[in-house]
Amino acid sequence: MDEELQLNVPLLRRRVPNLTTAAREAGLRAATVSNLCTGKIPIGRAEVKTLVALASLAGCSLDELIIRGSGLRMIETGIKALDLFAPVVRGGTVGFVARPNMGQLVLLAELMLRLKKRGFATVFWDPHSDTPGINHVQEQSEFICSSKEDIHKQIVELREEKDIVIGVDRSKVLSGELLSLRESLKEVGARPITIALVDTKCEVIDEEGAYGPLDTLWKFDADLIGRSIYPAIDPLASISTVLEGPYLDAVHLATQQRARKLLRRYKELRSLVTAQGFDKISAPDLLLYNKGERLEAYLAQPFYVSEPYTNVPGEWLTLYETLEDVKRILGGEMDHTEPSELFFKGRLAARA
């Protein structure tokens, strides 16, 4: 779609310092080039010969000059629970809300590893903390920066060629440094920067809007932790703006809504069963309970960063694979399968 195309302005300005003069000498109207750079003229309305001339001036290909897919969309992580219920928004901000020892830094390290595999540049803004788990994030980050100046310089060097994901501690939000960094990096046409915010002091759990505006919220669930279900992301409280409006595929949205409805009822029934036993729930509710138990078990997933400790290989599932599996569970195909057979695995077994 035309609105998903942008000019790679940083690349163009870096390679052609006197852009207005160079464009005029190449036979282009300076006003047209200026309007393309500021976004006043959409790329889709530009003449092909104009784009070809700009690429020639910059000494690059059209694929390098034009950034595709810059609209609001999700980034697949290969993590079932996240991609299904609260996807990462490309160029957005993800907030982790957790109490101590809930695995937020393990999840951030896993996110860094997975996005690095997808071609993202991974940068960690070191909070100089000795919080357990920080070392895992550092190990999975290509670049570790100690100051706002360092991270700004690193991003400017990287963003011409790659999308970037930055891991940032809440201390940088409170100090105002993150806001200052955002302001200094605003540039039309630049590749998106996705920010993952964690709270190493675990103070945001009781605060409303402690990170400021978020595009994705991942709230960790103590009950899931207590039952060793990881990632321990609450499927009912975790949300994403990419689920709003026209941005999400209709099949994804319908499947997610059905899964969330089932897990909401399952959670209610778990409380009743824990307090009074299975005798107090009806036969239809028992079927829902068993289906919810299977879906919850399926959403537990081994991580790559945990392989040395669990001896279980990490699993990556495409969104399509996750949706197909979840639909099979919701449709009753796995009703005769023990939840333990679905727990901490990748894909469901293929149909016979």
Structure description:
- There is one protein chain.
- The chain has helices spanning 9-15, 19-25, 30-38, 48-58, 62-65, 80-85, 104-117, 134-140, 148-158, 171-174, 177-184, 222-226, 250-276, 283-299, 307-310, 319-330, 339-342; strands at 5-7, 66-68, 74-75, 88-89, 93-97, 121-125, 143-145, 164-169, 193-198, 216-219, 239-240.
- With 352 residues, the chain is an alpha/beta fold.
- It folds into 3 domains: 2-68, lambda repressor-like DNA-binding domains (434 Repressor (Amino-terminal Domain)); 93-214, Rossmann fold (3-Layer(aba) Sandwich); 250-342, Bovine Mitochondrial F1-ATPase, ATP Synthase Beta Chain, Chain D, domain3.
- The chain has a 7-stranded mixed β-sheet, sandwiched between helices. Strands 1-2 form a two-stranded antiparallel ribbon.
- α7 (104-117) packs parallel to α8 (134-140) and α13 (250-276) packs across α14.
- It is elongated and about 85 Å long.
- The two termini are 40 Å apart.
Please work out how many helical segments DSSP would assign: 17
Given helix and strand content, the structural type is: alpha/beta
What is the gyration radius calculated from CA atoms? 23 Å
The biggest beta sheet, please?
7 strands, mixed
Query: What gap, in angstroms, lies between the N and C termini?
Result: 40 Å
Could you tell me the strand content as a percent range? Answer: 5-15%
- Using the coordinates shown, work out and report the CATH topology of the largest domain: Rossmann fold
Tell me roughly what share of residues is in helical segments: 40-55%
CATH top-level class of the largest domain: Alpha Beta
Unreliable sequence segments:
none
Name of the CATH architecture of the largest domain = 3-Layer(aba) Sandwich
Number of strands: 11
Broad shape: elongated
Query: Reading side by side through the largest sheet, how are the strands ordered?
Result: 7-6-8-9-5-10-11
Average of pLDDT: 90
Q: Tell me the count of domains.
A: 3
Q: Could you spell the SSE succession in H and E letters?
A: EHHHHHEEHEEHEHEHEHHEEHEHHHHH
